[in-house]
Fold this sequence. Notes:
Strand 9 and strand 10 (171-174) form a beta hairpin. The chain has two domains: 35-178, Fructose-1,6-Bisphosphatase, Chain A, domain 1, CATH 3.30.540.10; 187-307, D-Maltodextrin-Binding Protein, domain 2 (3-Layer(aba) Sandwich). The protein is globular. Helix 2 runs antiparallel to helix 3 (76-92) and helix 6 (227-235) runs parallel beside helix 7 (249-261). It has helices at residues 20-30, 36-60, 76-92, 128-133, 202-215, 227-235, 249-261, 289-296, 299-307, and strands spanning 65-68, 72-75, 97-100, 106-107, 110-111, 118-126, 139-146, 149-157, 162-167, 171-174, 177-178, 191-194, 220-222, 241-244, 265-267, 281-284. The protein is built from nine helices and 16 strands.
Amino acid sequence: MKKKSSAKSGAKKRPASKPRSAVRMAPARTAGAPDTKKLLAGMIAAAHACGAILRKYHAKGNLKISEKLGAGLVTNADIESERACVAALRKLRPDFGFLTEEGTTLVDGKPATDHPRGRWIIDPLDGTTNFVHGFPMFCVSIAAEWDGTIVAGVIEHPILRDTYSARLGGGAFLNGKPIRVSPTDRIDDSLLSTGFTYRKTELLHTEMVAFEELSSIARAIRRPGSAALDLAYTARGVFDGFWERRLSPWDIAAGLLLVREAGGKVTDFRGNEDVLSSSAILASNGALHDGLLEAIQTPEEKLRARWNLD
């Protein structure tokens, strides 16, 4: 907003060297930490809009499908959902940057702005393979990050019209009602969930070893094919634990907050809580965490965790 010029002839002029861009950028710098209640309401609205897009494609089936090298399938539903999400969230906080699975960088021909403190982390369709095959375990995942911490998260399950939401320090909810992790305290009484990498490499053998180990002691293990929903179901107490390797931040950002706000525990396979910088995640009700960690760690991971090696 331009200042009015002084009425006094002797008033000093603003120095010409001060760039006008600094004035335009001031709102972004002074916006400050977000109001997570307001943020969450906007995120839920965006997730609902994306869910409607996915339901449309799921009903009509007019999909254009391609494959990302080593990263599974992508469809026109993924792309449309992500563009709608980015557009809605950019209006909510124009100063936030974006980290998205399909790499949307333009909104109405303008770049999705970057910001050193705030960032949206979006998976517009988690469970694309399920979606393509008509298996209704897929969702939208949206997280808000501030200063490196996830402060709000939403997971939308479009087919069931279930909306999972959480904000830092504010608890976790399903359709507005509080949820909690399960009270299960024995692995042999547990229902667990996992996922396997798209990469058919030696890592698949490592994953199968952990699967076999836990299959021998857990009550049952499921593999639904959507990491975000696995985390949501852990937060609500359906699953007692979930683990998977080779995930990306958009797969887990919203879900990890849900689990923690529902009373659970989330770490990588070495027990570190900074899972966004890792590619592996273990989420549990807390009571089973140490036992699950012991079962899924490779000998190398056990050694690195013991001696705190990088």
